[in-house]
UniProtKB/TrEMBL annotation, chain A:
Chief localization: nucleus
Subcellular location(s) per record: Nucleus
Organism domain of life: Eukaryota
Function: DNA-dependent RNA polymerase which catalyzes the transcription of DNA into RNA using the four ribonucleoside triphosphates as substrates.
InterPro entries named among the record's database cross-references: RNA_pol_Rpb7-like_N_sf, Rpb7-like
Record organism: Eruca vesicaria subsp. sativa (Garden rocket)
One GO CC term, this protein: nucleus
Single Gene Ontology BP annotation: DNA-templated transcription initiation
Protein name as annotated: DNA-directed RNA polymerase subunit
From TrEMBL, chain B:
Family: Belongs to the RRN3 family.
Protein name: RNA polymerase I-specific transcription initiation factor RRN3
Xref: InterPro entries: RNA_pol_I_trans_ini_fac_RRN3
Superkingdom of this protein's organism: Eukaryota
Ranges of Acidic residues composition bias in the record: 538-564
Coiled coil regions, renumbered to chain: none
Region Disordered, annotated ranges: 538-567
Pfam families: RRN3
Length: 197, 605
């Protein structure tokens, strides 16, 4: 899973004087208002944070309401899937024209039939639709499957990912991992054989 | 697949539409038509747009055509381009479920869901289009009594809810985009009453769905805000002054209808609208109770009450939403409501960085709500009322201990409101509380509070004080000084002073509900003054059987009874006008036995 990053940030949080009673709560409240929103300063969607107040000194702003600025050190978990990066999510709907996925529980991703590689064919079994690979019969994509997809574009406003299943390293996460294990196992076996020979 | 099925079983959403796949040829044709725009040959595309724009509900062939096109479009959403296919998108978003047969409705809803889920660019437009159906067209509103239209309404709105649910399952952040749209499209209060009612019905239906789980509080805020707006449209001058036999409000409606006065009829629309909205909300609370989630919903309801009603200047009806929720679940919601109001009032003595005066009306309002609630809630056990009274008494006693000031109503507003609240509750509950020795003993500090230099008996509303003293004397609560002689004024300069500009001294929020239908929900759990009065009379009759009075004494009693009746009639009447002149005073002397709501003098508005 790509697109996730941990950032350290030095922030100045401005707090309303009425919230001076519990400053830490006020700081968390301010930062919480940024959660699940794309922020250009952070260059990503804020998913989680952890703050420590740097000093007891605060800068008071001149004005009608004397807001005060508190300097904090924050660890931020950010999500910003760049084009061509690989993200993972659960399939929630499958139709012949599209696969709908939810990434990290909040971001909707869709792969349209134009972006599904030829290898996959849509099939209906027991009233449930699925995409089955023609070259690997066990590679099946259905509702509930964890899917690895390539990001084509990310709509920051509505957190919508347009994805693609064209690259070969995309598809069912479980199957792909099993494949890579088998490949590495076969590699090891080859090396052993070469050594014996 | 019916809407009801989908709403109860979200897993069925995952396979939606797959059983009714469109012909592959049609999909290819539509995709070609969409692609043709890029090459400049737009004949096919134009035909496509024209087909969608046909608005002929009765023609089956046209319906079938539209159905086919919409289904094929649902499968070609990825080929739609916001720039090149602007006309097509405008035509799709211009379609209304109200104008089509069920099979076209299904196709349109599927297309909107596909558009919303496939690209973030269409999400807002799709949500907007779907929410737009919560406001039915005029012809539907005018024929709402016809079964055919009722069925159509159900068919359309069920599909809209189903679609919103599907979108929220496919796009988890969709509710965050939906709520601002819902708030934006909420009809204004000057719209036909039925429009607002249908919209609110749908809001509450959403609250009951999985979408409500994330935005319940926002939905309640919207409903509360609309209730408050309607509430504020009703001026106290619109409420009829006197009718002892029938509900004053229904009489006003009838009379106003007959007069055909335009202004009055617009007021009636407001009354009816508010009444219907209240009833709709009551039904929703009942559903929440049946689903076992009333306790959870109550927290959100209180939050919206605190935001919109508590700080609203003398709300008349909207607050009964809280009263009804409490009556449905007295043990949880009922107790929470009183405690939360008490906490707000008691937060007044905490040190604050901001000026205390700015929050004073809120605290006074909270204690006014508390007093009225404790007095009127039939469902509240005496033990709870006594506990709350004890907290109020202790608070006032603490205040007395630390304060060495003389009568200064404006400087000690909160203290006087607390005292008035205690007396007001006791006017209703005195007998049941004094019957239990433990509760009686908890009220002992009250005597010292009333005898304090701040002299609450001189400052609080004379009608409340007079009735309280009479009951205290009858119940032997403490020795009442005969020096307290009150004239028949319903208010005094001092009470006016402590009530402040807002006249919160005369605010009793849970005086009888003025709306006919809403009142039918409230009245079974409501203590009317007449009930208290009846109890008192029965008690007096019992006493009379034991005590043999001399002639002289019985004459005195009769006289007293006459005064008593007047005092009872006054009880809980919040003076609407000050006694500026004799005529006004004479008019107010003819108060109905049904207790009138609290009102304010015009000069304070």
């Amino acid at each position: 899973m790509e697109g996730l990053k941990l950032s350290n940030a030095e922030l100045m949080v401005y707090i309303h004087p009425s919230k001076s009673g519990n400053k830490l709560k006020a700081i968390c409240r301010e930062l919480s208002s940024l959660l699940f929103q794309y922020d250009e300063t952070f260059d990503g969607v804020l998913l989680a944070f952890d703050v420590t107040v740097k000093s007891k000194a605060a800068k008071i702003l001149a004005g009608l309401s004397p807001y005060f600025g508190v300097k904090v050190d924050a660890k931020l978990v950010l999500f910003n899937p760049k084009p061509n990066s690989l993200v993972e999510g659960e399939i929630v709907k499958i139709s012949p024209e599209s696969i709908h996925v939810i990434v990290l529980g909040f971001s909707a991703a869709v792969v349209t039939d134009l972006d599904i590689r030829e290898e996959f064919k849509y099939k209906m079994r027991n009233g449930e639709g699925s995409f089955v690979s023609m070259s690997h019969k066990r590679h099946v994509l259905k509702v509930g499957t964890m899917l690895r997809l390539q990001v084509e574009s990310f709509d920051e406003e509505v957190m919508h990912i347009a994805g693609s299943l064209i690259p070969a390293n995309t598809g069912c996460v479980k199957w792909l991992e099993k494949q890579s294990e088998e490949v590495s196992h076969m590699d090891r076996e080859d090396r052993k054989r070469r050594k014996i020979a | 697949m019916g809407a009801a099925e989908v709403l109860t079983d979200p897993s069925s959403l995952y396979n939606m539409g797959n059983n009714d796949l469109p012909d592959t040829d049609n999909v290819i044709t539509v995709r070609n038509a969409l692609a043709s725009v890029h090459s400049g040959e737009s004949d096919l595309y134009d035909q496509l747009v024209e087909t969608i724009q046909i608005n002929n509900r009765s023609d089956h062939e046209v319906g079938a055509q539209i159905d086919t096109v919409l289904k094929a479009l649902s499968c070609s959403v990825a080929c739609i381009d916001t720039t090149h296919h602007r006309r097509l998108l405008a035509a799709i978003f211009g379609m209304s479920l109200w104008n089509h047969k069920p099979h076209v409705m299904d196709a349109l809803v599927d297309l909107l869901v596909s558009l919303a889920a496939t690209s973030g660019k269409y999400l807002d437009s799709c949500l907007n289009r779907l929410v737009g159906h919560f406001v039915p067209p005029g012809w539907v509103i005018n024929r709402l009594r016809q079964q055919r239209v009722i069925d159509l309404k159900r068919e359309v709105l069920d599909r809209v809810h189903e679609a919103l649910l599907k979108i929220s399952l496919l796009v988890p952040l969709a509710p965050s985009r939906l709520f601002p749209i819902l708030a934006q499209q909420l009809p204004k209060i000057n719209k036909k009453d039925q429009v607002v009612v249908i919209y609110v019905e749908n809001l509450l239906k959403l609250e009951n769905s999985s979408i409500g789980q994330v935005g319940s509080v926002m939905i309640f805020m919207m409903v509360m805000e609309r209730l408050r707006d309607l509430d504020l449209e009703i001026d106290w001058d619109d409420i009829l002054q006197d009718d002892s036999n029938r509900g004053m409000f229904d009489m006003e409606l009838e009379d106003a209808m007959n007069e055909g006065d335009e202004d009055t009829s617009s007021k009636n629309i407001v009354f009816e609208s508010l009444d219907k909205l209240m009833v709709t909300s009551f039904h929703h609370l009942e559903t929440c109770k049946l689903d076992g989630r009333l306790d959870q919903v109550f927290e959100k309801l209180f939050e919206s009450f605190e935001n919109f009603i508590l700080n609203t200047y003398k709300s008349k009806v909207s607050q009964f939403l809280m009263f009804y929720a409490c009556s449905l679940d007295p043990e949880n919601c009922g107790v929470k409501f009183g405690s939360k109001l008490m906490d707000i009032f008691l937060s007044s003595n905490k040190p604050r960085p901001t000026r205390q005066a700015s929050l004073s009306p809120l605290w006074m309002s909270a204690v006014a709500y508390l007093a009225s609630y404790l007095a009127r809630g039939k469902f509240l056990p005496v033990s709870y009322v006594a506990t709350m009274l004890k907290r109020l008494v202790d608070e006032c006693a603490d205040y007395c201990r630390t304060c060495n000031d003389d009568i200064r109503p404006d400087a000690h507003q909160l203290f006087y409101s607390g005292c008035q609240a205690i007396m007001y509750v006791l006017c209703f509950r005195m007998r049941s509380i004094l019957d239990v020795p433990r509760f009686r003993s908890e009220l002992i500090p009250l005597e010292s509070i009333l005898m304090h230099k701040l002299n609450p008996l001189m400052v609080c509303l004379p009608s409340v004080v007079g009735e309280f003293l009479r009951k205290a004397k009858a119940g032997g609560m403490f020795v009442v000084s005969d020096s307290f002689i009150f004239d028949d004024l319903l208010e005094s300069e001092l009470s006016r002073a402590f009530g402040g500009f807002e006249r919160l001294d005369t605010f009793f929020p849970f005086d009888p509900c003025l709306l006919k239908s809403s009142n039918s929900f409230i009245s079974p759990n409501f203590i009317y003054w007449s009930m208290v009065k009846q109890d008192d009379e029965e008690e007096e009759e019992d006493d009379a059987e034991i005590i043999v009075n001399g002639d002289e004494e019985s004459d005195e009693e009769e006289e007293e009874e006459g005064d008593l009746d007047y005092a009872l009639n006054k009880m809980s009447i919040t003076p609407k006008h000050s006694f500026k002149n004799k005529m006004e005073r004479d008019r107010l002397m003819k108060m109905p036995s049904m207790i009138r709501p609290s009102t304010s003098p015009p000069e304070s508005l």
